[in-house]
Amino acid sequence: MKKQLLIAAVAATMASVSMADVSISGGATANINSASGADTTYASDIDLKIVGKAGATSATVDLEFLTTGEGTDDNDITNDSNFVKNAYISTNVAGANIKVGDWYGSDSLLGNGSNDNTEGLSVDYTMSGVKVQYEAQGASDSVTISGTVGGVAISHEIFDAKTDTKFSGSAAGVAITYRKIDADANDDDQSSLEVSTEVSGVTVSYAKVDNNVEKASDAFFGEVDITDATGFALSTSVAGNKVTFKSLDMDNVDTNKVIVSRPMAGGTFEATFADKDGAASSVDLELKVSF
User: Fold this and answer.
1) pLDDT digits (tens, 9 = 90+) for 127-171
2) How far is CA 102 from the centre of its chain?
3) Please, what's the b/e burial string for 88-102 (b: 16 or more CB within 10 A of its CB; e: otherwise)?
4) Alpha-carbon span 254 to 152, nearest angstrom
5) What does pTM read for this prediction?
6) Rounded to whole angstroms, how far apart are CA atoms 78 and 116?
7) Cβ contact 286:274 at 8 Å
8) Taking phi first (over 0 means left), then psi (-120 to 50 degrees means alpha), and beta for anything else, what does residue 18 get?
9) What is the pLDDT of residues 160-199, one digit of tens each?
10) pLDDT for 42-91, tens place per residue?
11) CA 135, 137, 140, 142: dihedral to nearest 10 degrees?
12) What tens digit of pLDDT does each residue of 232-255 get?
């Protein structure tokens, strides 16, 4: 009898393990940057994401490993940091999505997604196509109402004596995204605009940010800590390569970039050639892989 109970217990344990819903994914980039008159620098960014699910509930842990170094004689590592990027639990209760923990925001023209390591709460509920979301993190909280009207996605967030309004849609083949942050303090107002369309196989884009604080994303401009910037981009495919040319004006400094990317087995190789007024021209080689 004891032997039968033992076998049953082992079988139950094996069944629970085989039914466990755990996924592991991630990505990595490796960069080599060379500028005339400066040391060559090396950098790697490895991201590992683990998600465990049980019914409508999931737990997510996202680990990031960053390393940079210079081309010195002994190839010293100048910076090495490992940290938990995201750690949160999410579930659904009576149609409401609930997330508790620590997570990064998404990149935008007005800033890179960041995490101040403060525990947060997010609750959202969608009814008749209108989504209402409440978020709290530390001493800050916000309410966002979003939906789609006439093919235009609209969201309006109220938080910390500010409002954040976004519009995105397309008309006649032209995609338009506009964002405006109004603050009680006039020197904290921000706005961004991005327009893109395709002409004869060439994607034409225009982007503009207007900040009174030094904050902008590398989503389009490839730099941070800038206040005002405008840029044009042309992108097309040539012999299996994606070729992009960008003409940027960032805080009244002109920068031209040529970016060439090509799919490889399991990844993407990208080369960026940059020429910036008042600075040495540079070449950045990047290998990116996702799994």
Assistant:
1) 999 999 999 987 788 999 999 999 999 999 998 788 999 999 999
2) 16
3) bebeeeeeebbbebb
4) 33
5) 0.80
6) 24
7) no
8) alpha
9) 788 999 999 999 999 999 999 888 776 678 899 999 999 9
10) 999 999 999 999 999 999 999 989 887 765 444 444 556 778 888 999 99
11) -10
12) 999 999 999 999 999 999 888 899
212: which 2 tokens? 């009174």
Query: Hey, how many other C-beta atoms are within 10 angstroms of the C-beta on 246?
Result: 21
Structure tokens that stand for 141 in this block: 């909280």
Per DSSP, the three-state class of 6 is helix
User: Do 36 and 276 touch, CB atoms closer than 8 A?
Assistant: no
Q: What is the token pair recorded at 239?
A: 């012999």
pLDDT at site 115: 59
Q: Tell me the one-letter amino acid at 81.
A: S
Element containing residue 3 per DSSP (H, E):
helix 2-19
Token representation of residue 231: 């840029």
- Cβ contact 62:83 at 8 Å: no
